[in-house]
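Cytokinin riboside 5'-monophosphate phosphoribohydrolase: structure, please.
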Amino acid sequence: MKSIAVFCGSRDGASPVYKESAHALGKVLAEHGITLIYGGATVGLMGEVADAALQAGGDVIGVIPHFLKSREIEHKHLTELILVDSMHERKLKMSELAEGFIALPGGPGTMEEYFEIFTWAQLGLHQKPCGILNVHHYYDPLIALFDQMAREQFMPDKHRSMVLTDVSPEGMIRQFLNYSPPPVKTYLTDERT
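Here you go.
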């Protein structure tokens, strides 16, 4: 695996453990020779994961829309900074560059990015792993919601198994390296699994 996109908050969060985990993820990616693809900002967990990867000698590619360049304060020391015209272009470019996707804690923007890329995986638009780094139990309610979706038959078990979760960056990378996507979803059969 050569590149992973990280979706995460433009804030630090209430606990220092969020920033520490972003730092640990950036460092682990660099140590594995994996290029970090992210939103291109210097603020919050976004800046922390990028700085850690750079400090550990890794490559970091940021993708940021023109209108957010000043708001999120683009990172000026990246391997590459790609400017795009919209949030849609940002997500598309990140999806093209990345071979996997990890969500660190974040707000609605992080959720929107994760859910879109995960939905694309369910539909077979890509076969890349999508992971949730469950730092400080932040994503426990979301993981419980995925379980509820499966129980109530709004998500087949094979798609529930695509929701990769871990509490450590190393554990997540191991899951990514062993990931095998399920067959592509179809409505042409009465398949329920």
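Notes: The radius of gyration is 16 Å.
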